[in-house]
Amino acid sequence: MLAAEFRQRFLLQTAAKAGAIAASDKHQAAVLVPVIDYGTKLQLLFTQRALHLRHHPGQISFPGGRIEPGEQSHAAALREAQEEIGLAPSAVDILGTLPLQSTSTGFTIQPWVGLLSPQQSWILQADEVAGIFEVPLTHFLQQENRHQFSLPLRGKVQQLHAMPYQDKFIWGATAAILHKLCLQLA
After folding, report:
1. Known PANTHER family for this protein (predicted)?
2. Digit-coded pLDDT (tens) for 160-176
3. 176 burial level (CB within 10 Å; 0-12, 13-18, 19+)
4. Is 124 domain-assigned?
């Protein structure tokens, strides 16, 4: 799938389906789902969180974080991407949002999908990001690469998404967001 087709499929879905974070949500977060356009292929960019972080240490995620008071969620996603990996907000063509994603730690995440050109280099904030890597979008579009499993968390059995890629195990909220993206592109 090339960028033009990706854009068309993504934008055909109605924005009303995505929803917005309610002001009453205490733990609001936003992430950028960075889709890198290499011309002949699209890649998704992921971060691996630093091991010393309080929430989700070592897990694979999208750049993002808490929405500051009075901040718009798309601005938070872009700000966090700039802080975490050095991605200039002007380099991102925001296409829109995916449905909200809740986490087991009480956060409500607003995912923003953005197209960008390949970057010459990344500047990782070592306090938050241990590393970055890319995965071809086509990998996730194949149903056999998307899985669900049950896990007891905080006194409940929860259904979680997982999408392994090579030596990486993408699961939880990040995989759920990817699943929603794949459904929207279908």
Report:
1. MITOCHONDRIAL COENZYME A DIPHOSPHATASE NUDT8, NUDIX HYDROLASE
2. 889 999 999 998 899 99
3. buried
4. yes
| C-beta separation of 110 from 77 below 8 A | yes
Percent of the chain at pLDDT > 90 equals 56
Residue 117 DSSP SS3: coil
Residue 119 belongs to domain with CATH number: 3.90.79.10
Count structural domains, the chain: 1
Q: The whole model's pTM is what?
A: 0.88
CA distances for 148 relative to 73, 141, 154, 175, angstroms: 28, 15, 18, 9
> Tens digits of per-residue pLDDT, 83-117?
999 999 999 999 999 999 988 778 899 999 999 99
Q: Is residue 134 part of a domain?
A: yes
* Residue labelled with tokens 């008071």: 69
Amino acid at 97: T
147 found inside a domain? no
Q: Domain of 72?
A: 3-17+26-141
Query: Rounded to an integer, what distance in angstroms lies between the CA atom of residue 79 and that of residue 32?
Result: 10
**Are 92 and 115 within 8 A, CB to CB?**
yes
Alpha-carbon span 47 to 168, nearest angstrom = 11
Distance of CA 61 to the CA centre of its chain: 6
